[in-house]
Amino acid sequence: MTMTILRNDQKNTIDKKSTPKLTLLPLIALILCEVSGGPFGVEDSVKSGGGALLSLLGFLIFPIFWSIPEALITAELATSFPENGGYVIWISPAFDPFWGFQEGFWKWFSGVMDNALYPVLFLDYLKQSIPIFDQLYVRIPTLLAITILLTRLNYRDLHIVGFSIVLLASFSLLPFAVRGILSIPKIRPKRWITLDFKKVQWRGYFNNMFWNLNYWDKAST
């Protein structure tokens, strides 16, 4: 009996030591990719907001009332339940394992639907420079290849996922960083306060704000 307990304790210790962890930089990249809608979301916010002013105000004010509280709740609950599973584990003891399953399933379903957009958006950007990606005989195999590659990465070691997501985040941000530097001489501050209330699409505007600044709870898993 004593030997069995000791072996179980040793096994638990080994499991805890062997559990892979994300370091700080991959964790930051992961949160960025989970939360930020990226430049595409910003462009849509400006369009639905009838100019730059509402979009700028939204990205300054909205995080105070939504993003920061959501991030703090995530941090508090993740430290209260330091186990793999995140929000699924939070729901189960508070309500019932059935509702914990519902939370996990619908979050997963939401992620599948949301993540299906990004390879398409990537090719939509790419086809502006390489028009052949607008042709179905090239577009469909490319989308399948991207999806299979990213799915394969998720089945590999967590360190590989972390390294890959840093590369993907850098790859995504680099062109916009370069364009941002090149556009410095063309900055016109008076454009920042443009607002046409007749063109404001409130539903689209708030949807874009949520999309760009939501999902902090995903960091818990």
UniProtKB/TrEMBL annotation:
Stretches that traverse the bilayer: 53-73, 136-155, 161-182
Organism this protein belongs to: Lactuca saligna
Main location: membrane
Cellular localization per UniProt: Cell membrane
Family as reported in the entry's similarity comment: Belongs to the amino acid-polyamine-organocation (APC) superfamily. Polyamine:cation symporter (PHS) (TC 2.A.3.12) family.
Name of the protein this chain belongs to: Polyamine transporter
UniProt membrane topology term: Multi-pass membrane protein
Pfam families per record: AA_permease_2
Keyword annotations of the record: Cell membrane, Membrane, Symport, Transmembrane, Transmembrane helix, Transport
Gene Ontology molecular function, alphabetical: polyamine transmembrane transporter activity; symporter activity
GO cellular component terms listed in the entry, alphabetical order: plasma membrane
